Amino acid sequence: MNVKDTHDFTGRRRKWGRGRAPDVHDPYAAATKLKSPAHCTTCGVIYEHGRWAWPGPEKKTEGEEILCPACKRIEADDPGGLLVLEGTFWPMHQTEILNLLHNVEQQDKKNFPLHRIMSVAADGNAMVVAATDPHLVQRMNDALTSAYNGQADVKHDTDEYFMQVNWFRDA
Predict the structure, then answer these.
(1) Which residue in 13, 77, 82, 87 has the most C-beta neighbors within 10 A?
(2) At 136, which CATH number?
(3) Which of 75, 24, 26, 87 has its CA nearest to residue 52?
(4) Residue 171 has what pLDDT?
Protein backbone atom coordinates (compact mmCIF):
# COMPACT_ATOMS: atom_id res chain seq x y z
CA MET A 1 0.00 0.00 0.00
CA ASN A 2 1.29 3.40 -0.91
CA VAL A 3 2.02 5.62 2.10
CA LYS A 4 0.01 8.47 0.61
CA ASP A 5 -3.07 6.30 0.14
CA THR A 6 -5.30 5.70 3.12
CA HIS A 7 -8.89 4.96 4.01
CA ASP A 8 -11.26 7.21 5.89
CA PHE A 9 -13.66 6.04 8.61
CA THR A 10 -16.30 5.07 6.05
CA GLY A 11 -13.94 2.62 4.37
CA ARG A 12 -13.68 4.64 1.17
CA ARG A 13 -10.28 5.27 -0.30
CA ARG A 14 -9.08 8.85 -0.19
CA LYS A 15 -5.98 10.79 -1.10
CA TRP A 16 -3.66 12.03 1.64
CA GLY A 17 -4.77 15.34 3.12
CA ARG A 18 -8.26 15.42 1.67
CA GLY A 19 -10.00 13.47 4.41
CA ARG A 20 -9.94 16.23 7.00
CA ALA A 21 -12.57 18.41 5.37
CA PRO A 22 -14.44 19.83 8.34
CA ASP A 23 -18.20 19.59 8.50
CA VAL A 24 -18.37 23.01 10.18
CA HIS A 25 -17.16 26.07 8.33
CA ASP A 26 -16.75 29.66 9.39
CA PRO A 27 -20.17 31.27 8.87
CA TYR A 28 -18.49 34.58 8.03
CA ALA A 29 -16.43 33.10 5.20
CA ALA A 30 -17.84 33.34 1.69
CA ALA A 31 -19.96 30.36 0.66
CA THR A 32 -18.49 30.48 -2.84
CA LYS A 33 -15.06 31.44 -4.09
CA LEU A 34 -14.61 35.19 -4.32
CA LYS A 35 -13.56 36.97 -7.47
CA SER A 36 -9.86 37.61 -7.36
CA PRO A 37 -8.44 40.14 -6.71
CA ALA A 38 -10.45 41.76 -3.93
CA HIS A 39 -9.55 43.74 -0.84
CA CYS A 40 -11.11 44.56 2.50
CA THR A 41 -12.16 48.17 2.85
CA THR A 42 -11.62 48.13 6.63
CA CYS A 43 -8.26 46.45 7.25
CA GLY A 44 -6.72 46.39 3.75
CA VAL A 45 -6.12 42.64 3.56
CA ILE A 46 -6.28 41.33 -0.01
CA TYR A 47 -7.83 38.19 -1.48
CA GLU A 48 -5.81 36.78 -4.33
CA HIS A 49 -5.60 33.29 -5.84
CA GLY A 50 -8.05 31.90 -3.27
CA ARG A 51 -6.11 33.13 -0.23
CA TRP A 52 -6.17 36.14 2.10
CA ALA A 53 -2.84 37.97 2.51
CA TRP A 54 -1.49 41.28 3.69
CA PRO A 55 -0.61 43.64 0.86
CA GLY A 56 3.09 43.96 0.23
CA PRO A 57 5.10 46.24 -2.00
CA GLU A 58 4.38 44.00 -5.00
CA LYS A 59 0.69 43.52 -4.17
CA LYS A 60 -1.78 46.31 -4.81
CA THR A 61 -5.20 46.81 -3.27
CA GLU A 62 -7.25 46.64 -6.43
CA GLY A 63 -10.33 44.75 -7.49
CA GLU A 64 -13.61 44.31 -5.70
CA GLU A 65 -14.09 46.12 -2.38
CA ILE A 66 -15.47 43.80 0.31
CA LEU A 67 -15.36 43.12 4.04
CA CYS A 68 -13.10 40.22 4.98
CA PRO A 69 -14.49 37.52 7.32
CA ALA A 70 -12.45 38.86 10.28
CA CYS A 71 -13.82 42.38 9.88
CA LYS A 72 -17.35 40.97 9.54
CA ARG A 73 -16.87 39.14 12.86
CA ILE A 74 -15.49 42.25 14.54
CA GLU A 75 -18.36 44.37 13.19
CA ALA A 76 -20.94 41.83 14.40
CA ASP A 77 -19.10 41.40 17.73
CA ASP A 78 -19.26 37.63 17.24
CA PRO A 79 -15.93 36.05 18.23
CA GLY A 80 -14.71 32.75 16.84
CA GLY A 81 -13.17 31.95 20.19
CA LEU A 82 -12.69 33.11 23.77
CA LEU A 83 -9.72 32.71 26.07
CA VAL A 84 -10.79 33.18 29.70
CA LEU A 85 -7.99 33.58 32.25
CA GLU A 86 -8.91 32.90 35.86
CA GLY A 87 -7.10 32.54 39.16
CA THR A 88 -4.79 34.76 41.17
CA PHE A 89 -1.82 34.46 38.79
CA TRP A 90 -2.96 36.55 35.81
CA PRO A 91 -3.57 39.87 37.66
CA MET A 92 0.02 39.85 38.96
CA HIS A 93 1.40 39.12 35.47
CA GLN A 94 -1.18 40.88 33.31
CA THR A 95 1.29 42.95 31.29
CA GLU A 96 3.54 39.96 30.55
CA ILE A 97 0.57 37.79 29.60
CA LEU A 98 -0.90 40.45 27.29
CA ASN A 99 2.50 40.89 25.63
CA LEU A 100 2.70 37.13 25.09
CA LEU A 101 -0.82 36.98 23.62
CA HIS A 102 -0.18 39.93 21.29
CA ASN A 103 3.09 38.33 20.16
CA VAL A 104 1.22 35.11 19.34
CA GLU A 105 -1.33 37.16 17.41
CA GLN A 106 1.39 39.00 15.46
CA GLN A 107 3.13 35.73 14.55
CA ASP A 108 -0.17 34.15 13.52
CA LYS A 109 -1.27 37.16 11.46
CA LYS A 110 1.79 36.87 9.23
CA ASN A 111 0.46 33.66 7.67
CA PHE A 112 -3.21 33.93 8.63
CA PRO A 113 -4.33 37.56 8.31
CA LEU A 114 -7.87 36.73 9.45
CA HIS A 115 -6.64 35.61 12.89
CA ARG A 116 -6.93 38.65 15.16
CA ILE A 117 -7.62 39.59 18.74
CA MET A 118 -10.96 41.39 18.82
CA SER A 119 -11.00 42.61 22.41
CA VAL A 120 -9.52 42.18 25.87
CA ALA A 121 -11.75 42.73 28.90
CA ALA A 122 -10.56 42.33 32.47
CA ASP A 123 -12.24 42.64 35.83
CA GLY A 124 -11.16 41.45 39.26
CA ASN A 125 -12.04 37.81 38.63
CA ALA A 126 -11.18 37.08 35.01
CA MET A 127 -9.65 38.39 31.82
CA VAL A 128 -11.48 37.53 28.61
CA VAL A 129 -9.70 37.67 25.25
CA ALA A 130 -11.98 37.45 22.21
CA ALA A 131 -10.48 36.35 18.89
CA THR A 132 -11.76 36.06 15.35
CA ASP A 133 -10.70 32.44 14.91
CA PRO A 134 -10.65 29.37 17.18
CA HIS A 135 -7.19 28.39 15.91
CA LEU A 136 -5.73 31.61 17.32
CA VAL A 137 -7.36 30.86 20.69
CA GLN A 138 -5.74 27.42 20.63
CA ARG A 139 -2.31 28.90 19.84
CA MET A 140 -2.65 31.48 22.62
CA ASN A 141 -3.60 28.69 25.04
CA ASP A 142 -0.57 26.64 23.94
CA ALA A 143 1.73 29.63 24.50
CA LEU A 144 0.24 30.39 27.93
CA THR A 145 0.46 26.79 29.06
CA SER A 146 4.02 26.47 27.81
CA ALA A 147 5.16 29.69 29.46
CA TYR A 148 3.23 29.57 32.74
CA ASN A 149 2.11 25.94 33.30
CA GLY A 150 -1.55 26.71 33.89
CA GLN A 151 -4.50 24.33 33.57
CA ALA A 152 -6.70 24.63 30.52
CA ASP A 153 -10.23 23.42 29.93
CA VAL A 154 -10.86 23.46 26.19
CA LYS A 155 -14.45 23.49 24.92
CA HIS A 156 -14.78 23.18 21.18
CA ASP A 157 -18.29 23.52 19.84
CA THR A 158 -18.62 20.82 17.18
CA ASP A 159 -21.76 22.41 15.73
CA GLU A 160 -20.32 25.89 15.33
CA TYR A 161 -17.02 27.48 14.44
CA PHE A 162 -16.20 28.39 18.04
CA MET A 163 -13.78 27.45 20.83
CA GLN A 164 -13.61 28.56 24.45
CA VAL A 165 -10.55 27.93 26.59
CA ASN A 166 -10.75 28.48 30.33
CA TRP A 167 -7.18 28.86 31.59
CA PHE A 168 -6.54 28.75 35.31
CA ARG A 169 -3.56 29.24 37.59
CA ASP A 170 -3.16 30.42 41.14
CA ALA A 171 -0.01 32.18 42.23
Answers:
(1) 82
(2) 3.30.70
(3) 26
(4) 80
Query: Is 90 found in the same domain as 157?
Result: yes
* Model pLDDT for residues 107-119, shown as the tens digit of each residue: 999 999 999 999 9
Tell me if residue 72 falls in helix, strand or coil: helix
**Does residue 52 share a domain with residue 112?**
no
Q: Specify whether the CB–CB gap between 104 and 143 falls below 8 A.
A: yes
Query: Are the C-beta atoms of 8 and 14 separated by less than 8 Å?
Result: yes
Whether 116 is in a domain gets the answer: yes
Say whether both 105 and 149 belong to one domain.
yes
Q: Show the domain range for 57.
A: 29-67
User: Is residue 132 within 8 Å of residue 70, measured between CB atoms?
Assistant: yes
- pLDDT digit string (tens) for 74-124? 999 999 999 999 999 999 999 999 999 999 999 999 999 999 999 999 987
Q: How many domains does the chain have?
A: 2
pTM: 0.81
